[in-house]
Amino acid sequence: MTIKRLTSVIAFSLALGFLAFGCSGSSSSDSATATTTTTAAAVAVSTKPVSTLLLDKQSSTVLDQLLAYPNGGQAQISSAVLTFAPGATTGMHRHEAPLYVYVIEGTISVTYDGGVVKEYTAGQAILEAVGTAHNGTNLTDAPAKLLVVNIGAEGVANTVSL
User: Looking at the whole model, is its pTM more than 0.90?
Assistant: First the structure.
């Protein structure tokens, strides 16, 4: 059974479960609830995932460095969601391996060695500079939330604090 077929079967089974749960023991006063449950279950079965392209075939970092994977051990990918309170900072650091960043919400300002300052806002996706010292700061009065994905290798530091 293919993954697509299995996903459809699971979604259909869940929809039937929701339908049975919503309709079981319902009186005339519960008919609106049963109808809502049925409609929601039907939508869950027929809805296809929506795709939004965030970064397409990017071959250089935000500082126009050509993308290069680190030499060394086995490839390793790790990810995290980081939340920066207003005024929070990353501290000076650099990355030894490519780092993909997606700004989920808010705004983060990054000052790179040499004085280059860039601002990234919600909805932006970037490949961060590699080997260049920089500091990220939330200069706004709202939290900033980032998805970071390290594209490294065993024995290669993703981030080095300075």
Answer: no
